[in-house]
Specification:
The chain is globular, with a radius of gyration of 19 Å. It is an alpha/beta fold. The relative contact order is 0.19. Strands 1, 2, 6, 7, 8, 9, 10, 11, 12, 13 and 14 form an 11-stranded mixed beta sheet that branches. A 3-stranded antiparallel beta sheet has the order 3-4-5, covered by helices on one side. It has 8 helices and 14 strands. Strand 3 and strand 4 form a beta hairpin.
């Protein structure tokens, strides 16, 4: 796959610089004990800020809110730690912060082989998702299989994964342009600057509704169905067996209580109230 990064010259350079500045302000500022060691009663987390109803930027501009943030904070409460979910820049920048160890956790990531190199995954997954194909409503791709996308010009958001199997297939067979944000990808699709967009169902619907993009639609057949996991950076000073065990126990309890479903429904309502 020819994965071309869309570079918007000076505008993109400024945006990237601002993103780094924001991330540097919020990440790596860990609480310390009197002897200089990490205070592991307070963890810093982040995630994809362009991901409603799971995550989006809060009104204060400093944090993320949404169902995944709510779930992670409740996990922390059950595990005996406070987990602060920061707005730490773009999804790509958040992943780099996990590599650097300037964030402790991510509130929702797909499992891919490259990501295993720099973070641990907590099992089981806390939520399943569907990735779908989006097109303009006047274009019918008759999409049923990945091979139906061959020869077409696709769009997706930079640093996104849609499962290891699809990522491998796409790299070898498809032509997909990467763009900085879901909003930009949906607008490009709407303006006929791509034939399809690959993105998850709920976030795509949420952002399209907010931006009043009405000339697009998605296909029922999913590209992939993937699980979202909580993760912890290999380089986090708080990444210990004892803490990982407490977090896993907390995840199991919340899943048994069906807590994520309630949080997701509340988050969808909150997103709608805050954006309409």
């Amino acid at each position: 796959m020819k994965r071309m990064l869309v570079v918007l010259a000076a505008a993109m350079t400024c945006a990237f610089g601002a993103d780094i500045a924001l991330a540097d302000e919020r990440t790596g500022h860990f609480k310390r004990n009197a002897d200089g060691s990490r205070d592991c009663g307070h963890l810093l987390a982040s995630g994809n800020p362009d991901y409603p109803p799971y995550l989006w930027q809060s009104a204060d501009g400093q944090h993320l809110e949404g169902a995944a943030a709510d779930f992670l904070k409740q996990v922390g409460e059950l595990a005996g730690v406070r987990i602060e979910v920061l707005h730490a820049g773009s999804w790509g920048r958040v992943q780099q912060s996990m590599r650097d160890g300037t964030l402790d956790m991510i509130a929702g990531a797909f499992l891919t082989l490259p990501r295993l190199e720099y973070m641990d995954y907590f099992y089981p997954a806390f939520q399943g998702t569907r990735t779908v194909i989006w097109t303009r409503d006047n274009l019918d791709l008759n999409y049923q299989h990945w091979s139906d996308l061959r020869g077409l010009e696709g769009l997706t958001v930079i640093n996104n994964s849609f499962g290891q199997d699809f990522d491998t297939y796409a790299a070898q067979n498809l032509s997909i342009t990467e763009v900085p944000s879901l909003e930009q990808g949906l607008r490009m699709l709407s303006y006929n600057r791509g034939e399809y967009l690959i993105y998850e169902e709920f976030p795509g619907k949420a952002v399209a509704a907010r931006e009043h993009i009405t000339n697009i639609r998605s296909y029922e057949t999913p590209v992939s169905t993937e699980n979202l996991y909580l993760t912890m950076s290999h380089r986090s000073e708080c990444n210990t067996g004892a803490l990982r065990g407490r977090i896993t126990q907390a995840i199991l309890k919340l899943l048994a209580d069906d807590a994520m479903q309630n949080m997701l429904e509340a988050s969808i309502r909150r997103w709608g109230e805050n954006t309409n």
